């Protein structure tokens, strides 16, 4: 047995962080870079993150649980209002908030809107994260850092830290974790080691299908697509070394006129969506999958509380 050291051991910390920022700021990509595996859903289309997805960073000294929220935006529908409520509730509950601001875009009204909301959440420490630094030169980056510092000063608060990162290049991602950890409360681990997310598998599978279904469709469609996984069952009577998971999922659209866009000529587009998402699902779950996709019309689901509940909102 070793003699007790006079230096007190650093206590284990565990807690929650969430990344906020306007659409496309790089929140999901950063979550993935920190966790080291694809858990959040990224896309170059704004507002694809519907569900609160948690990624978990396990370290010897800490457990950092990342909550990925949808972007705060001007609500136009019932869904929009619910999403904003989810965002605000999340902000008030976490131990630290990371505000993502892309290095390659000047601060705009969207950033100010979020910063103002942040200023109102007094107790939670806020870190400014300048994302996508690989896209700018050092002068532009320096100017952005100054502008971000000023933004907080104007609103009467201070950043706990300001840190530039590139999630794509993996630059400063480790340092970001080092800065987040001391802001977490002392606590034993909250999740078993090895857990990367507690998002139910069915929701993650639905998100992967939604992500594939969104790719390459017209700009007005994203908010009209919802995916519900109805069933995930291991196929019976398969040899032990050749399992197969049957997944039945419905892709919901608002109007039957949108059916053609999703399905494509001779069903080709839907087939591609199926193939693409199946590969991702297999990678996620680590098992071969048979994916059965159906397109259904749920009329005006965004405005109908009953439909929203059914679709998981
Ligand atoms: N070059 C570069 N691109 C990045 C970086 N991080 C994210 N991106 C890109 O920026 C786009 C948006 O990234 P996301 O991570 O989906 O952004 P988000 O903030 O989660 O977006 P929403 O879900 O719409 O709120 C994607 O095309 C990413 O590939 C980065 O560090 N460098």
From TrEMBL:
It is a peripheral membrane protein. Residues 131-134 are annotated as: G4. It comes from the Bacteria. Signal peptide: none annotated. The keyword rRNA-binding applies. GTP binds at residues 21-28, 68-72, 131-134. InterPro entries: G_ERA_dom, GTP-bd, GTPase_Era-like, KH_dom-like_a/b, KH_dom_type_2, KH_sf_prok-type, P-loop_NTPase, Small_GTP-bd. Keywords: Cell membrane, Cytoplasm, GTP-binding, Membrane, Nucleotide-binding, Ribosome biogenesis, RNA-binding, rRNA-binding. Residues 217-299 form the KH type-2 domain. Belongs to the TRAFAC class TrmE-Era-EngA-EngB-Septin-like GTPase superfamily. Era GTPase family. An essential GTPase that binds both GDP and GTP, with rapid nucleotide exchange. Plays a role in 16S rRNA processing and 30S ribosomal subunit biogenesis and possibly also in cell cycle regulation and energy metabolism. Monomer. This is GTPase Era. It comes from Streptomyces polyasparticus.
């Amino acid at each position: 047995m070793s003699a007790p050291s006079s230096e007190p051991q650093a206590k284990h910390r565990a807690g929650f962080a969430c990344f906020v920022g306007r659409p496309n700021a790089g929140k999901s990509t950063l979550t993935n870079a920190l966790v080291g595996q694809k858990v959040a859903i990224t896309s170059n289309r704004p507002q694809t993150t519907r569900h609160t997805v948690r990624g978990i960073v396990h370290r010897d000294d800490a457990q950092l649980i990342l909550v990925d929220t949808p972007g705060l935006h001007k609500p136009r529908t019932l869904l929009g209002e619910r999403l904003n409520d989810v965002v605000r509730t999340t902000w008030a509950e976490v131990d630290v908030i990371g505000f993502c601001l892309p290095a390659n875009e000047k601060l705009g009204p969207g950033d100010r809107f979020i910063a103002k909301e942040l200023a109102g959440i007094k107790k939670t420490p806020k870190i400014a994260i300048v994302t996508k630094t690989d896209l700018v030169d050092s002068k532009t980056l320096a100017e952005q850092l100054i502008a971000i510092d000023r933004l907080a000063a104007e609103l009467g608060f201070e950043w706990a830290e300001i840190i530039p990162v590139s999630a794509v290049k993996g630059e400063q991602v480790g340092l970001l974790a080092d800065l987040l950890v001391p802001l977490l409360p002392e606590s034993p681990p909250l999740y078993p080691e090895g857990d990367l997310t507690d998002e139910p598998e069915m929701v993650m599978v639905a998100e992967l299908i939604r992500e594939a279904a969104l790719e390459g469709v017209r700009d007005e469609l994203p908010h009209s697509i919802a995916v519900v996984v109805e069933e995930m069952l291991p196929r019976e009577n398969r040899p032990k070394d050749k399992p197969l998971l049957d997944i039945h999922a419905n892709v919901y659209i608002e109007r039957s006129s949108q059916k053609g866009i999703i399905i494509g000529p001779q069903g080709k587009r839907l087939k591609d969506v199926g193939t693409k998402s199946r590969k991702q699902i297999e990678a996620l779950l680590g098992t071969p999958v048979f994916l059965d996709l159906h397109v259904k019309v749920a009329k005006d689901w965004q405005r109908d509380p009953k439909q929203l509940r059914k679709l998981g909102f």
